[in-house]
Amino acid sequence: MNLPNKITVSRILLIPIFIIFMIVDFKMGTLYIGGTELSVEHLIGALLFIIAAATDWFDGHLARKHNLITNMGKFLDPLADKLLVSAALVILVELGAAPSWVVIIIISREFAVTGLRLILAGGGEVVAANQLGKIKTATQLVAIASLLMNNIFFEAFGIPFGLIMLYIALFYTIWSGIDYFYKNRHVLLESM
């Protein structure tokens, strides 16, 4: 296992730690940052999410720079993204920070694309994320980070930045999903 793949695996391993800080009240107190109230646990959880999300860029950068792109990495990287994003979105619904219908659509798209990736992999094809998929992931990560941090720095101005970004992420999630299925429709047609 090369370094980029190890970083991807570390992203997966950070997920349960992130979840614990988001759902367990350790009685660590409350902070007021940029006009926003935020528990210390949620701040730590949000920072863990941001660190895990940053590894997505870092492992891809290392893999491309040092020519370490592998089929395992092409499979693990999007899986790690989906696990991280899905966990965070479910937590946001539990916290009342994200509408459940939006989360259902986003997670459903992730399952559908993962299913298609498995069908492609069964045929010997491993498809790396395209530009739309990268935009989708970036908008999701920005939306989630903002919502996890209670819309920090924007709340004081009454701007629901995190929610706006979540709807932008929803748009890109749907668009990239349609694009992914359209570009790989030959696989679906062959399996019918």
UniProtKB/TrEMBL annotation:
Q: Which reaction is catalysed here?
A: a CDP-1,2-diacyl-sn-glycerol + sn-glycerol 3-phosphate = a 1,2-diacyl-sn-glycero-3-phospho-(1'-sn-glycero-3'-phosphate) + CMP + H(+)
UniProt xrefs under InterPro entries: CDP-alcohol_PTase-I, CDP-OH_P_trans, CDP-OH_PTrfase_TM_dom, CDP_ALCOHOL_P_TRANSF_CS, Phosphatidylglycerol_P_synth
Entry coiled-coil feature ranges: none
Give the pathway annotation.
Lipid metabolism; Phospholipid metabolism; phosphatidylglycerol biosynthesis; phosphatidylglycerol from CDP-diacylglycerol: step 1/2
> Where is the protein localized?
Membrane
Q: Which UniProt keywords apply?
A: Lipid biosynthesis, Lipid metabolism, Membrane, Phospholipid biosynthesis, Phospholipid metabolism, Transferase, Transmembrane, Transmembrane helix
* Domain of life according to the entry: Bacteria
Give the residue spans that cross the bilayer. 12-34, 40-62, 83-107, 157-182
Q: Which Gene3D superfamilies match?
A: 1.20.120.1760
As recorded in UniProt, its EC number(s) are 2.7.8.5
Which function does this protein serve? This protein catalyzes the committed step to the synthesis of the acidic phospholipids.
For this entry, the protein name equals CDP-diacylglycerol--glycerol-3-phosphate 3-phosphatidyltransferase
What organism is listed for this UniProt entry?
Sporosarcina contaminans
